[in-house]
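G., before I forget:
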Amino acid sequence: MSSTYGQNLRLTIFGQSHSEAIGVTVEGLPSGFPIDMAALQAFLLRRAPGRNDWSTPRKEADAPEFLCGVKDGVTCGAPLTAIIRNTNTRSGDYSQLAYCPRPGHADYTAYVKYGASRDYAGGGHFSGRLTAPLCIAGGICLQLLQREGIKVMARIRSIGEVCDESEFTESVAGKLFPTVSDAAGKAMQQTIAAARAECDSVGGSVECVVTGVPAGLGDPMFDGMENRIAAVLFGIPAVKGVEFGEGFAAAALRGSENNDPFTVENGRIVTATNHCGGILGGITNGMPLVVRAAFKPTPSIAREQQTVDLRTNTPTTLSVHGRHDPCIVPRAVPCVEAAVAIAVYDAWLEYKKHKE
Amino acid sequence: MSSTYGQNLRLTIFGQSHSEAIGVTVEGLPSGFPIDMAALQAFLLRRAPGRNDWSTPRKEADAPEFLCGVKDGVTCGAPLTAIIRNTNTRSGDYSQLAYCPRPGHADYTAYVKYGASRDYAGGGHFSGRLTAPLCIAGGICLQLLQREGIKVMARIRSIGEVCDESEFTESVAGKLFPTVSDAAGKAMQQTIAAARAECDSVGGSVECVVTGVPAGLGDPMFDGMENRIAAVLFGIPAVKGVEFGEGFAAAALRGSENNDPFTVENGRIVTATNHCGGILGGITNGMPLVVRAAFKPTPSIAREQQTVDLRTNTPTTLSVHGRHDPCIVPRAVPCVEAAVAIAVYDAWLEYKKHKE
Amino acid sequence: MSSTYGQNLRLTIFGQSHSEAIGVTVEGLPSGFPIDMAALQAFLLRRAPGRNDWSTPRKEADAPEFLCGVKDGVTCGAPLTAIIRNTNTRSGDYSQLAYCPRPGHADYTAYVKYGASRDYAGGGHFSGRLTAPLCIAGGICLQLLQREGIKVMARIRSIGEVCDESEFTESVAGKLFPTVSDAAGKAMQQTIAAARAECDSVGGSVECVVTGVPAGLGDPMFDGMENRIAAVLFGIPAVKGVEFGEGFAAAALRGSENNDPFTVENGRIVTATNHCGGILGGITNGMPLVVRAAFKPTPSIAREQQTVDLRTNTPTTLSVHGRHDPCIVPRAVPCVEAAVAIAVYDAWLEYKKHKE
Amino acid sequence: MSSTYGQNLRLTIFGQSHSEAIGVTVEGLPSGFPIDMAALQAFLLRRAPGRNDWSTPRKEADAPEFLCGVKDGVTCGAPLTAIIRNTNTRSGDYSQLAYCPRPGHADYTAYVKYGASRDYAGGGHFSGRLTAPLCIAGGICLQLLQREGIKVMARIRSIGEVCDESEFTESVAGKLFPTVSDAAGKAMQQTIAAARAECDSVGGSVECVVTGVPAGLGDPMFDGMENRIAAVLFGIPAVKGVEFGEGFAAAALRGSENNDPFTVENGRIVTATNHCGGILGGITNGMPLVVRAAFKPTPSIAREQQTVDLRTNTPTTLSVHGRHDPCIVPRAVPCVEAAVAIAVYDAWLEYKKHKE
């Protein structure tokens, strides 16, 4: 199956790019939590398309309708379901995709798995649009975590070859194009513009930092924080890599460089460095949790590409029209925050269970 | 919790480094499968310590005892449990660890989570030794996949700064030090020897390739092959990053570079390149599945390190004695194969369910 | 948590009696199945209130709106979500229930569990109304099973002291008041009318028979067909007992009476009797699966009852107004069919996986 | 699959009647709990065979060996695995069962499901012997619950036609043959003796009462206490019915009879009666939880029975030799306690999570 995540909080995402609606059901939310609807809407807006130069012109209000689980804006303990109607769909753009899978997309694998009855319009259930309900669930988790003093913030780490090398700071939180170095941000926007100008797209990476997380979240082996977070992050379309702390760079280090010495700070045990990204043995150690996700370039490009006609099993070419982001990474930033918030809040509920 | 993985196949790993025994229970194996015990033992031997220059001198026969689930070497449909007795334990080596957590290890987080009653000897349930039962389960899955024409093979991709740049070939399968380029392999061994000589350790990365996997394995969103494989791989101690196909490198590419054009080969739809690592939308596309895992350097090093005395909450220093690998990566190769085989076989059972 | 069931098929039910909508998401449905919408609507109508003498006058069209998962009435492989808007709600009827829990209802336990923020109107998430989405999911499973030659049919077995003693026959399938003996059915309706006349309610039991089910469905121990079916059936409000085959009557029997001798019929192994209700060791044996569920009398009665004022923690009395069924059992018949169909279809998907 | 249960506590049972060993792994136990090994052994002894007139003469010490998860008798947070070696097996008794399924047993369904490779000796994984590891896990849960003031006690409710009509009292706890009325107990023993004398067996029922359970355990719909408890109880071989409170008797009652009026006792909200068995809407209401399980008569009887030769698909007869209980019910009493304790403790961990 597919679209369910979580052990203590459980969310189920449903919908296709061009179905009546998309949405999410979240079970396990505490009763009595007043959702800040304005803050949630502002969070969703960061992901929404059509707001600026670097995203698809498809405009969706993305205003969630809450069907149940809240009463007067307060959670009531029952499963919460929120939906977003799909209004601005132009299925005509996708007619050729019924038999010509787009390179780099799930069109072909969806065809193999679900056959002729699959909903190919707009990528169906595989569409990046499904990250909107993820952000509804994640946006609520962000608010729940905030109440516990836990903050989840992400920045664009790289676009194409341009990297925001600066150390992470909370300053990124309010930015429309969240990089620590604004110069790097400007260079990234130029990289996106260049790709767009050449009818191409470009990839990038996002870094997410969680502060205020207590030591003791997560479990050994298959339920470690790395496993839990990776299991959600790879649910965001286009994510092809996930790493924690030094991540792949740690593979080139010596133990004496990578180990984080323990020390005491204000009577609290901390580590002098944070190469491990706040996780040891799958369990948080009280330092900021640091995770990065690699996004491949948007596969939908206007250039002519080689594909196969599924009706005849013969090679042919395809130019993808429709409206697409030349770079998905800026809009992916809140999605990463949502995904990480969901995993952390789920683990936090587990953690709380074992505390007296 | 922790130690259970899988939906169609379910494995539960138990044991601590110095408990009576470690082991694994596997549910969902098909009935009537004759396990090739010699092949399984040979596979386990690749992970076993004490066999050569680059691993810990702790010697364990690692011969599994099958308690149930097999009859005359053939699976009988009931849950299979295999255990390995812990014989060559020297708990005395670990006495200081009761109150001085080793940097980079799970000692501190285990203390936070499980308190004074935790079993700290040898890392307890967090020990790399727990990959032995993982390899029992994975070794059986490898045999089951082989019967379906699916091969899972891994190689050392890098040790420290040394990388085996050559394209993956099946030639690595039989090698004691599995690199495609033997020159690279030699340089890696020197890197390990140098780290050992300096009482240090070094990290590395492993690449795993699965061939013969049909198109259609995996599911959208949270049950994609990337999610499923990452969820097992991060269960191997020291893994800090997981990527598929181009992985993090894809973040620097253009769509026109990264997209894999479809074409027809011998009447079968294939892609001309394989930047996606055989997975699109979480579902296999019939091309080889390619995954890489980053291993941090072994945290246990003989050098003096900074830590904290948990009894007094004051800084102190620690020199880790005991027997440890200067580089875990060579022994991790079969563990990666085991982990990937488990995830792929679990998905394969699901896939089979939907085929008529 | 609460509202998710299934391993190979997974359904999540959401909504409260008086929320915007109630609904269900079903994952794992095969792609390409044309749902017979007229048949589904007819099935839902059997459960709907307000159609005759023995049910509540609350009228709801109960016409499901499909948000996703179907395209032109055919399943597309993505999660299917259907909702029913709550239109005919009269929340005013429930104001006293904010602080006076109804005896026999979940009002008090919901208050304990979810506190002041719970949605008490109409029983909230605990309302029998939530069986409508169960019937949507179950109605689809019934159609899927029918395609495999598997029929799920239920009858009213007893109302109060009146029992339909006749052996089960398929004749019940089309009846408005499904009993084998119409005389028994008439007596049951009189029993209901008598309870209603006395401002009271009455309980009853439902028997469900599944024919055409192959031998081999289900698993040992905790995933046996009994466990699986009971786990759904107890999800229907008011169910207080579940039994299979002879059930509780088997406790009074000798082995020589209760054992079902094996024999051969048309070359097929069958049993001469079916005391076991088609299940041995948790696994179907190819005979009809027989299960019965006991329903307690509807707790909502117009008579004055003793309760406690939660504001003052003092005893008080309560007369439940609003519109309620004097006997829920007739409307529960399709709910039992739905629940059993879901469990059987879920097991059938598992079964199919292990067949070549 | 089969042999795993639980959400907050997870247990996996493995083994066959005549395999090397049987056992259980329990994840999610709190760290630091000192298991009272003597009490556990005494509990297991209540289930063990060969101790008196009414059970099989097969003698097994049933002394569990703890492989991991405990250190000096105290839980350490890691998964706990305990095994029992199978020593007193006489596989020769079972040779005919390779091709002649015993009526009422899982022999035939195991053959259908697992084929020729199944382990038929002694019933394999379907053997009642597998309740020994269930009792290990349950015995530990009983101790954990006891620490919270929660007691789980069961009695024999009926054997054949003889019923212990007396109201439940804690006096049964210490009894070798646990009935409230010793006269009823004596009559039951005579019923068993009579069945044995006639080479037959007899069924019965067990009633389990849980006191001290706080209001608020369990969840709506599919995770209610009824669903959770039934899901374990039906895992005990021979259980064919499960009911709560009045259970099937409630089906014959009026609402005015069955509803439990709320009242206040020592400032605490209680119900004047307990027809609901302590559960409303799936959630405990603070009153004693009452559940009954129906056991069919042991299918293994010495009388000649009709069966089918699987080699030739022709009818034949079978006399089951070997050593069998004429009535499993007395030995099932601790198994019911174990099963209920597991379900309640699992729910209690969930409950604790939501308490501040």
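Chain D touches chain A through ten residues (CB under 8 Å). Chain D has a mean pLDDT of 93.

More on Monday.
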